Amino acid sequence: MSGDGSGKSSSEQGRRTFGASQDIVVYTENGAVDAMGFKRMVDGISLQMMRRTEQRWALVCNDTLWFAVGFLALSQAGKMIILPQTNQLSSVQAAHADAILTDQPTHFGSAVTLDITQEPGVDAHGSVKLDEKLNIELYTSGTTGRPKRVDKLLGQLHAEVMELEQKWGSMLGDAVVVATVPHHHLYGLLFRFLWPWWMRRPIYAPTCTQPFMLRESARRFGRCAVVSSPAFLTRVNDYSVFQAVHAYAGVFTSGAPLPQETAVGLAAELGQAVIEVYGSTETGGIAWRARGHDTDDMSWQPFASVQTEISASDCCVPGRLLVCSPWTWRREWVDTGDLAQRHLHERFLLCGRADNILKVEDKRASLAEMEERLAAHELVNEARMVILEGKRVSVGAVVVLSAMGHVQIAQDGVQAVRALLIKMLRDCYDPVLVPRKWRFVPTIPGNSMGKIERAQLQALFTEEC
Amino acid sequence: MHFKTSFRNKSPIMNPLIDELKQLIINALDLEGVTPADIDSHAPLFGDGLGLDSIDALELGVAIQKRYHINLDATSSETRQHFHSVDNLAKFILMRQKN
Fold first, then answer.
1. Domain extent for A382
2. Does residue A287 surpass a pLDDT of 60?
3. Do the beta carbons of residue A288 and residue A250 sit within 8 Å?
4. Which one, A67, A126, A158, A391, has the greatest CB density within 10 A?
5. What is the CATH architecture of B4-98?
6. Do residue B59 and residue A391 have CB atoms under 8 angstroms apart?
7. How far apart are the CA of A86 and the nearest CA of chain B, in angstroms?
8. Using a CB-CB distance cutoff of 8 angstroms, which residues of chain A are in contact with residue B59?
């Protein structure tokens, strides 16, 4: 795996040679780490790792510099890399790692941890060596509420990066890669870390959590590529953060479709269309689209190496979208669970889900599963969840309390019971999915799971309560 | 439900600003069943405290910029600090308004 993007022969796969030792690999908030310094850090941790007997390491770093160093050091030492779904203790525990490599060692109680920030760098010869057979274990929200494990080989991630580079490499040039999304989910792992690292583009380590931070980065670095999401881009209400038009080499978004209005508004401000990438942790990247100001074409173009099939007998009706690519596990066909319809040539339109999985602010949610989990609580008899559309999309919970629940609410009040249930759900779900509005009712309105009931449930949240 | 702020803050402008910020947080983030008195000025807004999430952080940044006409131009670690609690936010806004 070479870093020069020139498509090296397979004998050179597995290593990335750094460029000039003074080339910047990572920009930090106030400084920068050059290739030589970065390699010293990687080799230092790697040496420690080789002395350790633990094989399965969870990599949990807030800072992308430490994440990058940890990832490469673990790869180099031949350890299995586990990327838990969140940095919270519960998701790290769910991944059953032997030990945790982290930049925040005090968060993990009695677990075996290694503080990545405390390891001295070492000078070693040669380049960072990576094994393309190395296994990386990612976790996604899945559809069950429990983190779902997805395995990737480093070689598969490399294949995907090479495709991205072929498509957009020349457009990005030497831009600094700036991100608003975390590095431990597949999209961030590829777009904000592996792609720039393999192709020698500098990485900006801090995550831009506010729109103004993009403007600051553009001012500091000149040309930037932005790795973002609909949840972020729809909230950039002042597009002047993108004013330095020429500073943006490209803006990427993934996680959910970008609303048309945001796509068009941003395209006008940037002078170029935002690139939307469609994919999932299970499938990796599937397709892309770039909607300019003059188009209402909603169709997606599959990546060159991705085969797609739609499981419908008639091309005029939507069917389940199946994909197969060099980066799906064992090159097997994967059912995305999304409904699609064939458009021109291999392009397709997305037409919602085949199951009852919904997206809430780019995060997958199974309402039925959340209902079951809530109903299993001793204070609850029955529960229904609804999606509430407003300034933000959120989940609302309608709850019928158990006898014990009634006693508790009489004793401690609604707030306390609500807080208890929220706490229980927070341990299992992304914070964005935890219900923000609660209604405690004597019975669930309606008696079927049909549309009427959903409408009645929705109504509970529009009335003043 | 703590009222620590009223004892800790000596500046006379701080308390009205803190109350105003709590109301702004409740309105901007559409927090149901939360009153200003429920928000501890010193407790973390994100994570274990009020339990706000990443979307709230974005919405709050936008709301504060709109309401106080201040330019947020801190680095990310400074911003994390400013957004840590209501008290920190109030201090940050006061500092910005003076400049």
1. 358-462
2. yes
3. no
4. A67
5. Orthogonal Bundle (1.10)
6. yes
7. 12
8. 235, 391-392
